[in-house]
Design goal:
Elements (H helix, E strand, L loop, with lengths): L3 E4 L3 H13 L5 E7 L11 H8 L2 E5 L22 H24 L3 H10 L14 H7 L9 H10 L9 H4 L1
Parallel strand pairs: 1-2, 2-3
Amino acid sequence: MIYAGSSNFAGWHIAKAQEQARQRHFQGLISEQSLYNLLTRDVELEVLPACRDYGLGLIPWSPLGSGILGGALQKQRQGRRSDKHVQDQVEKLRPQLKAYEAFCRKRGEHPALVALGWLLHQDGVAAPIIGPRTLEQLESANGATQVKLNKRDLEELDQIFPGPGAPAPEAYAW
């Protein structure tokens, strides 16, 4: 069997593709690959609800936001974090990152694992795409499956990195 997925589709595109497949008696898409992490939550408006409704698994890319959610304040001058664009983002997000990294320290978890674990707690997320540069990073990423976030933890992360608040149109029309 051949499976098809989409990348960076809007909710409308997913609906259109699935309805076209249904008309032709095809399986349709099985996954959507989108930018999604604690910093970038736009997909919660329409993409994630469309995925849930049509049974697609969401596969988030850049789950650590270019490394910013991997302990950027602790290791600000290492690896990709030394890039000027990333440095500018870190400065812009410094208050949120301080709160986030304090949250992670309080839990005794590495920030990267919390960011990945948070994604795994989102209904409709199949698995984040990780981009390890070392074997150690690959092996440690498995620890994200052990990160347990309760309702209070998820609410605290929503306070630090607010999402849109609801799916569309409720998020902006009511």
